[in-house]
Amino acid sequence: MADFADRLLRWFDANGRKDLPWQKNPTPYRVWISEIMLQQTQVSTVIPYFQRFVDTFPDVHALAAAEQDQVLHLWTGLGYYARARNLHQAAKIVVRDHGGEFPPGVERLCELPGIGRSTAGAITALGQGEWAAILDGNVKRVLTRCFAVPGWPEQSAVKRHLWELAESLTPRQAVRDYTQAIMDLGATVCTRSSPRCQACPVNAQCLALQADSIPSFPGRKPVRKLPIKATVMHMVEDPDRQVLLEKRPPSGIWGGLWSFPEGDNTDQLPDFLTSQPATAQPELWPVLRHTFSHYHLDITPVHRKIRQHPGTVLESGRWLWYPLSQTDKPVEIGLAAPVKKLLQRLAGSSIKH
What residues form DSSP beta bridges with 322? Predict the structure, then answer.
């Protein structure tokens, strides 16, 4: 398909997106932030997060110098928090080992935490203006349909074939426009549902369209029933309307975020709270289900009010009494989505994050 790129570039000139915030001054840093945020996340959701993030951390030096809590605070609500931790760690490496400049080439970029081959390709093509192919979700959808590539795109053999196609189609000239064009085509025309095939610049060559089999591509992930895990979250509130939060370990689910103390049962409190008299019987709230990619987590929230604030000196950096009234500047910490939701219910009004 020798004219694939030419058709796409002509379409992009007339129809492509050119006003997304990361397209303005597309430095490697801004492209990198946008690409990480856009993983598993819609553009409309990412835009306000991106703007807040780069306003706070305008360059890689500012991000590297930040506290992790501040980074996670700005990420709260985007999910997949390992992305934020890797982003922070990679920024430190870029500043420490590369003088604040992103290393050239896909292979060297892939050495940084959280940067895979497609993200590295986007940074190279969009941020550095050098040749590289990408294969994000939008590109996979375009290629599987246009070339009728069967199978789930994450299967090794299928992905290998798609990478071969992506590299063979990416032109040596105008790589920045082509890269944006093929992403835009998948995002605005060759969409997951209700694709606008008549508006597609390569519809005459699309094998799936010719076979009237667009819904069959890309192939679906094999269905697997998610297991269910359970936990109890203890929402301990003191007389000053503060609730106790605990910082989670740096790795694992919600790594580095703040959460309620957890246990296997409704009586399993931290030791320093077991002697605190409650003002009333603990209140069990309805189970809250939070779904991860690999399992469901059923959370049983238990609201317990204590008569007086414990005099115990808490381990610094692990425990925090979080004020439910956010009349002043909010406490800048990272909160897992269900924790934020429960805090909002406890406060009785929206907490700004």
Answer: 243
Residues 236 and 210 in one domain: no
Same domain, yes or no, for 29 and 155? yes
What is the Cα–Cα distance from 320 to 114, expressed in whole angstroms? Answer: 29
Q: Which of 35, 107, 237, 315 is catalytic?
A: 35
Burial 335-349 (b: 16+ CB within 10 A, else e): bbebbbbbbeebbee
Residue ranges of alpha helices (H) inside 197-267 are 207-210
Same-domain pairing of 50 and 127: yes
CB 217 within 8 A of CB 148: yes
Q: How many CB atoms lie within 10 A of CB 158?
A: 18
**Residue pLDDT, tens place only, 191-235:** 999 999 999 999 999 999 999 999 999 999 888 899 999 999 999
User: Residue 218 carries which DSSP code?
Assistant: S
Task: Catalogue the long-range contacts made by 24-28 (C-beta closer than 8 Å, 24 or more residues apart).
Answer: 26/126, 26/127, 26/176, 27/127, 28/102, 28/123, 28/127, 28/128
Nearest of 278, 272, 350 to residue 318 by alpha carbon: 272
Q: 35 an active-site residue?
A: yes
At residue 237, the 3 state secondary structure works out as strand
- Rg of the chain, C-alpha, whole Å: 24
22 and 145 co-located in one domain: yes
**Same domain, residue pair 81 and 36:** yes
pLDDT attached to residue 330? 65
**Residue carrying structure tokens 């005459």:** 204
Q: Is residue 352 part of a domain?
A: no
Sign of CA dihedral 57, 59, 63, 65: negative
Domain range spanning residue 283? 228-347
For residues 233 and 187, state if they share a domain. Answer: no
pLDDT tens figures, 289-341 = 999 989 999 999 999 998 887 666 566 788 898 999 864 556 789 998 899 99
pLDDT bucket at 352, cuts 50 / 70 / 90: very low
pLDDT band per the 50, 70, 90 thresholds, residue 269 = confident
Point out the domain boundary residue: 184, 216, 248: 216
Exposed/middle/buried for 308, CB within 10 Å: 0-12, 13-18, 19+? exposed
